Each structure stands twice: as structure tokens, then as C-alpha cells.
Amino acid sequence: MQPGLYFAAAVAVIATALAVTSYNPVHALLHLVVSLLAVAVVLLQLGAPFAGILEVIIYAGAIMVLFVFVVMLLNLGESTIDQERRWLTPRAWIVPSILSLGLLSELVRTLVRSTGNAAAGTPIGASAVGAALYGPYLLTVELASMLLLAGLVAAFHLGRHE
Residue 161 has what pLDDT? Predict the structure, then answer.
């Protein structure tokens, strides 16, 4: 494996941890963008250029712009930062930490059991991804887009000041 792969993976993990523990919502979004870009680099290094480009265009591009727009629309300030500090106590991290450790152990177990190189599999092109997304998974893709729209409308109405 290339050392750049491990460096990008470490950047992704660190940036994600900073995004989760950040008190300021704008800083958390910026850390999340760095994390998504690092995941795109990992995908590119593993030999999945189409998935890496989709990661940049869809997640780091479109969805992050939507998140920044919602944060700016809600006009979050010092009261939100104080509320986050009150909510993020060490006791609140117990259950998410246990779940994350379970996922990490499953990931390590899967990686240890795999015998071949991850990039040695059959390459998947853009047409195959498009046929899968807009073939049998068309309803799922449309439901996910409606869920994102409903979350945006709910965030706007919940954060609106009277």
C-alpha cells in the first residue's frame, strides 16, 4: 500500500473527530469538508476514481454547501455554542463510543479476513453506477432526496426566530 493512503486515512479520521467535537457549527462543517476530501483521496488511491470524484462533487460540494446555507440561515451564535458545551459532557460520549468501537472492531475483523487487494477487484464504471442508482434503487434515491429536503425545511422552521 502507498503511504499517501495511510496519511489520507489519518487525516480523515482526525478531521472527523474534530467535526464531531467542535463547538462552533461552522468550524465543524469545515472539518467535515476536510474529512470528505480525505475520503475522496483514499478512494482515488484505492483505484476507484469515479467514486472519489462523486465524493467530491456530491458530498464535499453540494451537500456541504447545503449545510453551510442552513447554518447561515439559522444564524447560530454564542447561545448555540454554550448549549453544545452543556450537552457534550463526558457522560454523553459513552454510548456513541461503545458503538464506534464495535464498528471499528468489525472493520478491523473484515480487513484482516480479506485475503486480496481491495483495488484488485472488478472496476465499476460510471454507467454501472448510474444503472444501479436509477434502476432498482430509483425509489431509494428519490426518498433520500425527499428526506434531505424535509430536513432542510424542518431546520428552517425550528430555527426561525419569531
Answer: 67
